[in-house]
Design a protein that fits this description.
Elements (H helix, E strand, L loop, with lengths): L8 H4 L3 E2 H7 L6 H9 L3 E3 L2 E2 L5 E2 L4 E6 L2 E7 L9 H5 L2 E3 L1 H16 L13 H13 L7
Antiparallel strand pairs: 1-4, 2-3, 2-5, 5-6, 6-7
Helix pairs in contact: 2-3
Length: 144
């Protein structure tokens, strides 16, 4: 009869799979989303793309790109189980530079909204006239 060897509990807590940690730290809602973002190269360690099975340790610095946001975090604790948001925030610490950059970008985007974001639905009759007038001014087929 073959005996299986179990890892000691202390050894299990020294490293965790990257995809599980990202899910437990609540950067992504599902492990599948976590794995997909890792495969797309949106998670890096020291500028190097990683694989979902990469074992991370306490003290590792990760660059996480999620949508328009870019986080640079240092791993402070390990967990492969998803907990509350308060628990998830104890798993990492965002670097001051990253936090400052994110707040500056968020403030700039708030002050300068996306073009066309104030339009709602179809243009009114008045708006249509203004659009046609504007387009007529720049019509290259007109003789000057």
């Amino acid at each position: 009869m073959k005996k299986t060897q179990n890892k000691p509990a202390a050894e299990e807590s020294t490293s965790v799979r990257l995809d599980k940690w990202l899910w437990a730290a609540r950067f992504f809602k599902t492990r599948t989303l976590s794995q997909d973002n890792i495969e797309l190269g949106r998670i890096r360690m020291n500028g190097v793309r990683l694989k979902a099975s990469k074992e991370i340790k306490i003290g590792d610095q990760l660059e996480i790109i999620r949508g328009e946001e870019r986080f640079i975090v240092v791993v402070k604790a390990l967990s492969s189980k998803r907990g509350s948001a308060a628990v998830a925030q104890t798993l990492y610490e965002e670097t001051p530079d990253s936090l400052e950059t994110r707040t500056r970008i968020k403030e700039n985007s708030r002050l300068m909204p996306m073009p066309g974001s104030d339009y709602h639905g179809r243009p009114t009759k008045r708006d249509g006239r203004k659009i046609r007038q504007f387009m007529a001014e720049f019509d290259p087929s007109k003789d000057f």
